[in-house]
């Protein structure tokens, strides 16, 4: 890139050129200096505009509005992932024969509200399950199983408290972050046309709200099949439940190229426990090491072996070299020396297993 001159450089150049053009030395009171500064200010602004234009050419450096208005329509046909509302099943109780209408609101302790999707009538047993959906989209609507919801308004014959059933209220996701959009645009741009390659299936999976990482495994479950593992890093539990897997499967069946069988799968969690001796050993350096290890696992861990950003064939499990872990620890700010006691060898995962950061024991 051509270096951009500073305003002071432009002023000095213009002052010198004015002297040369007039063939006379500048007097103490003359127009050279104010004229040079005025012209230099305008010229500096033009350089700035050219610099801005150059940044807009590439999605890596462009402004947010350029990314959304220019690059997203070209490379992400489905657009920026909108927020989605959490949903799931609750258990209601009360007197037999009493109805509760669709749309009835239930509240959580933090004032989040959920609406009954369909009206139900209590059977003779006095208990019934019903589906609810968050009234506001976003990750905040996700609710753990066993949580209690209360009716906002009294409903005759219906107990005011309801229980969230397993696997909880899930599927809630915030609007896609701008840097996540940027990363998907860059990935799609590098990948070229989407014709059904393994990387295409990963791109399609990440079009679903909340999905942040995906790995495609062709022929894993038979010839002509495609299996796509995925996680949701924004959720408290990154491993998707059955409803979230069904949502991704539905999107893949609608978007992807025709295949014999399509599977949307949750990886198997494989926590990796560490035993480390640090020098020096301080809380700040420990935290830096934790962040460094989490980063290398997020970057290299995968449920299938990868090479050059693609799934290696035939499909096999992934391995994280132990040297990469020691390198990450060495790169933590403040670390001078360390001893990695465990793991004592490379981290070897089976097909479908995803290495995650487990417990750390400090010596």
From TrEMBL:
Pfam families reported for this sequence: Baseplate_J, Baseplate_J_C, Baseplate_J_M
Domain of life, source organism: Bacteria
InterPro entries listed in its UniProt record: Barrel_Baseplate_J-like, Baseplate_J-like_C, Baseplate_J_M, Phage_Baseplate_Assmbl_Protein
Limits of the Baseplate protein J-like barrel domain: 90-160
Domain Baseplate J-like C-terminal: 272-362
Domain Baseplate J-like central as annotated: residue spans: 196-268
Similarity field: Belongs to the Mu gp47/PBSX XkdT family.
The name this protein goes by in its record: Uncharacterized protein
Native organism: Chromobacterium haemolyticum
